[in-house]
Amino acid sequence: MNSADINVRRHTREAWIKYNALRIGELYEIIEKTVHEVNPDIELGAMTHMSGSDGLNTDEWNEKLCSKTLREIRWRPGGGVYTDYSLPEVYDKANRISAQIRYLPESAVIQSEIENFPYQSLKKSPSFTAFEAFIYQAAGCSGTAFNVLAKEEEAGEEHERFFKMAEEAREYGTLLTETFGQQPLCGAGFWWDKNTASFSTEKSWNCWKPVPSAVDIHQIGIPYACASEHMSVFFFDGDTAFRIPEAELMKCLSKGVLLSADALDILNKRGFGEYTGFMLTGTFTKDTFEVETEHRLNMPGEHRRNIRQAFDWSVKKTYTIEATSERAEYLARNFDLYQTERGMCSGIFTNRLGGRVCVEGMTPFDWCYSLPRSRHVKNVIRWLSKNTIPAFIDSFHRAAVWVRGNAAFIANMAMENAEDVRLCLKTKASAVSAVISCGSKIIRREKIGAKELFDGYSVFEIANIPIMGTALIMQDNGCFCDDKDK
Known about the structure:
Blueprint: H1 6-38, E1 45-48, H2 58-65, E2 74-77, H3 87-100, E3 109-115, H4 126-138, E4 143-147, H5 156-180, E5 187-190, H6 215-219, E6 231-236, H7 238-243, H8 246-253, E7 256-260, H9 261-272, E8 278-284, E9 288-292, E10 304-306, E11 318-323, E12 329-336, E13 341-350, E14 356-360, H10 371-385, E15 391-393, E16 399-404, E17 407-412, E18 418-425, E19 431-438, E20 441-449, E21 452-454, E22 457-465, E23 469-474
Parallel strand pairs: 1-2, 2-3, 3-4, 5-6, 6-7, 7-14
Antiparallel strand pairs: 8-11, 9-10, 9-12, 12-13, 13-14, 15-18, 16-17, 17-23, 18-22, 19-20, 19-23, 21-22
Helix pairs in contact: 1-2, 3-4, 4-5
């Protein structure tokens, strides 16, 4: 699995993953038979974790747990967030939960597990616990299982706050479940499948590798999609480019793809260079910064971006690229610290399939929290999607958005109030209904009228989303994402 040729490694890893999935399925089959021989009315369920090497075979496992009379299986997707210190961990867990439940049937009952281990209530407050639960509902769960109470007898006084929180959260949690139903997540994301843990091109295999996720891109307001059939834009790193089957790859290349430079190189070596528009020309491990060109997809001003390669923790490589088609356009140059230009490092291209490609040679999926970079990313995603991305946050906020059916859900991912949040929705609706929460409570309901309309998007401004706050945005009919064209 580690020392063989790269293709042998991939096939061996895939075989190991399939073996694990098969054995887990056999265990579930034995459990179902044993339990229901004792009492056929006992409901069954399972708790998953985003391990990758288990095979993510939840559709088949669900069927193994079903009996002739009990078809409703309870699932509890998990993953650790044990403190209220880090909001990005919550977002990452939300995406891992979406991955764990991607293949489950509509009959499944899905409750996220909120575990406040080691059950010291000042490490994770009741308000944060509720906020976390609401995010996981937006990510695809239909409810929440709170695992938050300490076992010690003297902890009773601490428990009361969590009982109160759970009761307060019921109103908003019920509204989320009723609003989202079984609607899928629509937006952008990495292509992946059940064998995603085998993707790594590295010799040392991290078999616990989760589904890749561009946390920074999504936390500035680009909606996350888990399943490829609901993606307007696809993200490719090198592992994805190496692993994706040709038929799936061609579907992606006919739509919109954001490529890292190593993904570009792998696709070109696989024989798909005519669809990418660029070639890799250089790799750099230190003393690099990027300067944007004057281009419609960039903020005016030729802004500079430096990922601080001089620090030990910044091990990211940067790359230069060269156009292989006269239709390609450059977006940025690569310089060293002495202001010497090394070459171009970012560009866009429209291929003969009508698909759009953006190649970025410097951290395409993170370092997104500056204003010029945030604006650039949103412009690129819109361009790649041909303005089919169902929603995005147009203002400069750290706010995540999920889109499912006729509703969008925004979570304030910053430790300050988000004021005047501009949400662009793919709708012609002149007004939407908004429900704003803070912690475990609904704090206001309001109608919001559209400020303006551009490129098929209506712009709605939410005056304030508080710390640990969310906004549920609903229109009366129609969907923000129409999968017919995806």
